[in-house]
Amino acid sequence: MELAISVIVIFMILGAIYAIHASDILSAVIAGGIVGYSLVICFLLLKAPDLAIVQIVVETITLIIMVAVVLDSSRKEAYGKFDTQAWVTAATAVVILAILFWFLKEASAPLAPFGENTMRMADAYVNGAVDKTGSVNLVTGVLFDFRGYDTLGEATVLVTAVLGVLTILRIRGRK
Amino acid sequence: MTVYWLCFILFLVGLYGVITRRNLIKIAISLSVMEFSCFLFLALIGYTEGGAAPIVDTADPVKIYVDPLPQAMVLTAIVIGLATTAMLMAVIIRIYRKYGTFDIREINNLRG
User: Fold this and answer.
1) Is B14 on the interface with A (CB under 8 A)?
2) CA-to-CA distance for A49 and B106, rounded, in angstroms?
3) CB A19 within 8 A of CB A28
4) For B57, which residue in chain A has the nearest alpha carbon?
5) Is B88 in contact with A62 (CB distance < 8 Å)?
6) For residue B12, which of A42, A30, A94, A113 has the smallest C-alpha distance?
7) What domains can be seen in chain B, in order of their start residue?
8) Which of A37, A126, A167 is nearest to B55 (CA)?
9) How confident is the model over B23-51, as a mean pLDDT?
10) What is the pLDDT of residues B59-89, one digit of tens each?
């Protein structure tokens, strides 16, 4: 299982690297889609069918929005000459990545090995959840019963985002 | 443990794109790559070897389930990620209509 997921994640990394370096923006968007759809397969392998369903819908919508934006504007990548500022940016990026990698190495040391989850928190959510919530799907039970206010907040964020998109796209900008 | 490392590397690739790219759409793509790596990491943490998907069959209860808590968290995060991406794309298309370019350095130079 770990091997299969590793192979898919390597595929995702390659897709992400191509998306970052592609010279055509439309192919960059499609290569970004590789990452999202591979994530669906990962979720299925990790026994998370709810996540896979939501992710495949969300990824399709994201891809449609991005392709619509690209087709409505320019497909050319902005290539400038590789001047001092670009060098400084690249060097800063490499330093930040090195520091973060060291930090992640330190932070991942106390993690349990893959596949040996101890379920400290989830015991209360799993044992007797069907009687408490009346839902055979444990994820639904957590989402809509134990953590209902969390879902309410999520709905608020969604409404705010929709209002924001409508506001941004409707008002005519200053010339 | 290898999977966790690869997940970190995916996150770092996205961060590298956000820092070094000059095209707004590529920055948006890199941001969603970082998002996806976080989702994958949470789902990986909740996985239990030999566990079943967290759906109870009342006729034949299984002993071991995959941890449902990270899955509920990621489900919320995925939907919020869609909302932020849609809003980001709306801002980007407005910027393109106003300045006629996606290059952030050129937009910076064009400011009056």
Assistant:
1) yes
2) 44
3) yes
4) A136
5) no
6) A94
7) 2-56+65-110 (1.10.287.3510)
8) A126
9) 90
10) 777 778 888 888 888 999 999 999 999 999 9
- The whole-angstrom separation of Cα A42 and Cα A3 is 12
Q: Is the ipTM of this complex over 0.85?
A: yes
Which residue from A146, A54, A9 is spatially nearest to B74, judged by alpha carbons?
Answer: A54
- Closest among B1, B53, B105, B2 to A139, alpha carbons compared: B53
Structure-token pair, residue B66: 């995959």
A74 close to A51: Cβ distance less than 8 angstroms: no
d(CA B73, CA B77): 6
- Give the nearest partner residue to A77 out of B23, B55, B72, using CB atoms: B23
Contact residues on chain B for A46, CB-CB shorter than 8 A: 43-44, 46-47, 66
- What separation in angstroms does the CA of A28 have from each of A21, B72, B96? 8, 30, 18
B48: β partners? A116
B38 touches chain A (CB under 8 A): no
Strand partners, A24: A76
Please give the interface size between A and B, counted as residue pairs whose CB atoms are below 8 Å apart. 252
Distance of CA A141 to the CA centre of its chain: 23
Taking the Cβ of residue B99 and every Cβ of chain A, the question of whether any pair is shorter than 8 Å is answered with no
Residue A175 pLDDT: 56
**In the block, residue with structure tokens 């101890």:** A118
Question: pLDDT band for position A126 (50/70/90)?
Answer: confident
C-beta atoms of A139 and B68 within 8 A: yes
